[in-house]
Design a protein that fits this description.
This protein has about 200 residues and is mainly beta. The protein is built from two helices and 16 strands.
Length: about 200
């Protein structure tokens, strides 16, 4: 007898079937009447933006894109897949998305910058989608993130961040020289202006 192993993949309509129901709801979000709140469904987004389910990667990009449309972050910073009938908590190692390409037009204050994510979203760098730089306390390495809205972020890949730094320039902000990037009429700080011969974050 030959046993054929079939790969288990989640479906948007039955996420709670693999998890214990009746868990704590997302902070700041009230479940609708009849909406199921479930615990860990063993789904994870790793630091490279790859989605996993029950220990195996989800290779169907269409399925990943579908899940991404219902991904929310609650007031405690936890991540949930929220459909009209279910609220299911998932693990995110770093940011749920990656910015894998930079697109820019114009120069200096007339410059417009956009990013393409690993799920092919095009997000402008603007007042609604600002840049955030988090410095690792141990390595002093920068962690650049782009806000996507609703508490979600895309982390810039190293090559994209280096390209962004190359497009940046120094501005006098409140009497302090700040190195940053103009985009869509706003200035976004990257770091202090480097001394002559120095580099920004080793870029």
């Amino acid at each position: 007898m030959v046993t054929i192993m079939t790969k288990i993949e989640p479906e948007l309509s039955n996420l709670s079937q693999t998890a214990k129901q009746g868990g704590k709801p997302p902070a700041g979000l009230t479940p609708r009447p009849g909406q199921i709140v479930c615990g860990d469904i063993n789904m994870r987004i790793d630091s490279q933006g790859r989605w996993h389910y029950q220990g195996s990667p989800i290779n169907r990009i269409e399925l990943v894109k579908l899940f991404s449309t219902v991904l929310k972050r609650d007031d405690d910073g936890d991540y949930w897949l929220i459909t009209p009938v279910e609220m299911c908590k998932i693990e995110v190692e770093d940011a749920p998305f990656l910015a894998v390409e930079i697109i820019h037009e114009g120069e200096d204050q007339d410059q417009n910058v956009r990013f393409r994510t690993n799920l092919d979203q095009i997000i402008p760098l603007d007042d609604n989608h600002p840049l955030r730089i988090e410095i690792n306390e141990n390595s002093s390495e920068p962690g650049p993130y782009l806000a996507l809205g609703n508490g979600l972020e895309a982390k810039l890949t190293r090559s994209v961040f280096y390209e962004l730094v190359d497009l940046a320039n120094s501005e006098d902000i409140g009497g302090e020289h700040i190195y940053g990037i103009w985009s869509n009429g706003d200035f976004f700080a990257i770091g202090p202006t480097p001394e002559e011969g120095d580099q920004v974050y080793g870029c």
